[in-house]
Design brief:
Serine Threonine Protein Phosphatase 5, Tetratricopeptide repeat, 8 helices
Length: 146
């Protein structure tokens, strides 16, 4: 069964590289049918749905991914990004908060939280989050130099 899931996922990525998102989604659906608890496959399917403008379905996929693995900071962050694109800033902040709780050094979650707070007119808090993102990024860049 594991090999079948991998072959469907591989086929899906081939379609993604070709820009054939509908076909990729069909392959991800088959992989999910074989392993419905694969959080990463759910999340990637969500991204493909988003590329097709199917945003509510995208968020549903992130919810499924979170049900499968609630400790994946990247999935929380991705869900928050999509909620922000839809103007649902309070929900975006909740997702970013969860991503940050799981990974306090997630500079992207801090940065995107700052943008959402800014949209809500919470400028001081937005500035604090932006500064945290900047400091994390600065530390990451310093580590790469070594």
């Amino acid at each position: 069964m594991k090999e079948d899931v991998r072959s469907w996922t591989k086929k899906a990525f081939e379609f993604v590289l070709q820009g054939n998102f509908d076909e990729a989604i069909e392959c991800f659906d088959e992989a999910i049918r074989l392993n419905p608890n694969d959080a990463i496959t759910w999340a990637i399917k969500g991204r493909m749905l988003g590329k097709l403008g199917r945003h509510n379905e995208e968020i549903e996929c992130y919810d499924e991914a979170i049900r499968s693995d609630s400790n994946n900071a990247d999935v929380w962050h991705d869900k928050g990004l999509e909620l922000g694109r839809l103007g649902r800033y309070n929900e975006e902040i909740e997702c970013d908060d969860e991503a940050i709780r799981l990974d306090p050094n997630n500079d992207s979650a801090w940065y995107d939280k700052s943008l959402a707070l800014n949209k809500l007119g919470k400028f001081e808090e937005a500035g604090e989050c932006f500064e945290k993102a900047r400091l994390i990024l600065k530390k990451l860049k310093a580590k790469k130099r070594w």
